[in-house]
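ok trying again, last paste got cut off:
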Amino acid sequence: MTQRSPGLKLLFVCIIGFVLLVPLVMVYALVGDRQSQSEVAQDAITAGWGGEQTIAGPVLVIPFNGTSTETETVDGKARSRTVTTRQELFLSPSHQSIATELTPDYKEYSIYRSVIYDSETTGTASFALPDDLSRFDVERGALLLDQAELRFGIADPRGLTDGTSVKVEGEKQVLQPGNGPRSTGGAGFSTPVKWGGAAELKVDWTYGLRGSKSFALVPRGGETEWTVSSPWQHPSFVGSFLPENESKQVTADGFKATYSGITNLALGEALVTLEEQGPPPPLSADFTPDRMAYETPPVADTSDVAAIRLVEPVDLYSQVDRSVKYGFLFIGFTFLAYLMFDVVGGARVASAEYLLTGVGLVLFFVMLLAFAEVVGFALAYIIASGAIIGLLTAYSAAILGGWRRAGMIGGMLAGLYATLYILLSLEAWSLMIGSVLLFVALAAVMYATRNVEWSLRQDEGAEALPAA
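nice, full thing came through this time. structure:
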């Protein structure tokens, strides 16, 4: 057998590289599976505490006696009659001011943990009947103001703690469970209210609420102001409304944000309606720090939401997921180094040695995932990269014929792993840095192989040597 030409060696290396894509894709799928298991475990952790909370209200519901026309057929003749029906008028506050304090913590089970919080929400609101009720075909005298009901929405009422209090004109009210606004799916609490309707109705409330991961508000009324503060250092502000940049403060001691100027014009909702607003769009189920999205389904009557996510400072699954995407670059750079020693340096590297080296590089990501779930991403990265660098450096000493060449491989791998960690940390610059490194690597290979004959067939007269 004759010695393989440089072009044929390059072809075999490319084939082996593409074969290694199969286990790399399997590792990528493994990361997704472990992330799904983590989400299930987090839901189990917070099951007895409280889920992602959305609050709404208050809204004042006033029953009234309305009239409607019914048509019936008797003896083949259509007859119309007017009947009196009990209907409801939904009145939003002309102004409301809400303040929320979030106190976060972690709740753990086995290797999993979830962000939870205690919250304290206080607020004031004022209601006033408009002068143009007739525009809604409602007569002021038909309103049953002594049978009005004040409704507050809580997405997960299991999280309510002691101390819930509602005062109307300074008088504490008796609260009833359930019967909340539709904007929270009917969950929450309510209280009957007697109101004359002539003057403004003043409402004050406070309640403690436990939840996890996120806290959201469904604003409604003529004007809504919401102030949120917390010692959490990594908030993500999402939803249809965002806090004002001037009022938003995120420091090492936590964050404070104010949502102001949310009017009924911005919401596209009248203060008085005869049909209650529908539920709000849900927060994206596949949220990650890499994808802080807020997906709105195609529903026309949904309410807008202002929400805050308590984001984990390091989401290990998203970090591992992103690192796996760079896996083929690790394989490519390492194979390229071996090929240069083979073609330019005179070392002989067999196809099986390329394959075993590639398997070792893929194993790094499995080790990274396994250790990250136990000791955290940063320490897991050090452990996994150190193990693979040591393994492949020792193996390279055997296949390349010396520790000097193996040291170059080890140094290259150390540089690659260090670069990858930087790329994972500098998300905004990762594409630019990666493209520059690829350009430098390509230029180096072009320079090193500028005199190499890549023909797949040996030149006539070339000395026959055993195959690599």
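cool. Confidence is low (pLDDT under 50) at residues 281-303, 458-468. Residues 6-38+317-448 form one domain.
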